[in-house]
Amino acid sequence: VENPSRMTNRRIKETIGIRYDDAGKMAKIIELTKEMLLAHSDIDTSKTLIVNFNAFASSSLDFFIYTFTKTTNWVDYHQIKQDVLLKVLDIIEGQGAECAFPTSTVHMADGELFRNIDNES
């Protein structure tokens, strides 16, 4: 049971994935994201603040953000969360990395595709 009238903070809990091609940039992205949160005037740094590499997902390398805002106001919370997420995007792009999206790679034997196309003609 959650009693909003007793809340002192609102939680931001997000998982963000970058491309496997950007694995070498993960440590710096995590470092800069944590620095950004620690410097953010609307984040309560006296509460738990975690930014960690979290998973080798099927289409991405995932890190998560776990932190708390200073406000409990629903509208203000969403503005702060948006600001944090936009800053994370800037950090990712600033490191020359990209957010991942679901992909599939098909590996074929050399020439297999062309051999099948030639047989259909």
Automatic annotation (TrEMBL):
Gene3D superfamilies: 3.30.70.100. Residues 15-98 form the Mechanosensitive ion channel MscS C-terminal domain. InterPro entries: MS_channel_C, MscS_channel_C_sf, YnaI-like. It is found in: Membrane. PANTHER family: LOW CONDUCTANCE MECHANOSENSITIVE CHANNEL YNAI (PTHR43634:SF2), OW CONDUCTANCE MECHANOSENSITIVE CHANNEL (PTHR43634). Belongs to the MscS (TC 1.A.23) family. This is Mechanosensitive ion channel MscS C-terminal domain-containing protein. It comes from marine metagenome.
